[in-house]
Amino acid sequence: MTVYVDVLFAVNMLMDYLALFAAARFGSLPCGRFRMLCGSLLGGAYSVLALVWSPFGWLPVRILFGIVMCLAAYGRSTYFIRACALFFVVSGAFAGMAAALGPLTGRQFLLGAGYYFAVPMRALLLAAA
């Protein structure tokens, strides 16, 4: 399977932004959109790094990058631990749904330490038209 780094980065950045936003909403946490964008940019970069160098895909490194993303998104505050816990729960739910939808649709949604949506060329051409 051919993996395009820009698609991998963009999809993971979007998914991380949604996870950070959902965690903030579920916990009624104050956070700025720019900070969440910075956290999601780190998450997108991490997915590319995990594809290029396999030690970035190890579980302790994933947890560390998740904490760094939370630190970038929510800052050091009194609700940081709650925000991180909510982020990990939401991220786990997203990954579980992607893992469950993969066999149902016949597509692979998870690649290494990130999400990757391979779109067939016919669908891409139809969307472009």
Structural class: mainly alpha
Number of continuous helical runs:
5
Could you name the ranges where pLDDT drops below 50 across 5 or more consecutive residues? none
Give the number of DSSP strands.
2
Strand content: under 5%
* Proportion of helical residues: over 70%
Characterize the biggest β-sheet: 2 strands, antiparallel
Describe the protein's topology.
Blueprint: H1 5-26, H2 33-52, H3 59-74, H4 80-105, E1 110-111, E2 114-115, H5 121-128
Antiparallel strand pairs: 1-2
Description of the molecule:
Strand 1 (110-111) and strand 2 (114-115) form a beta hairpin. The radius of gyration is 15 Å and the shape is globular. It has a two-stranded antiparallel sheet. The protein contains 5 helices and 2 strands; from the N terminus they run H-H-H-H-E-E-H. The mean pLDDT is 81. With 129 residues, it is mostly helical. The two termini are 25 Å apart.
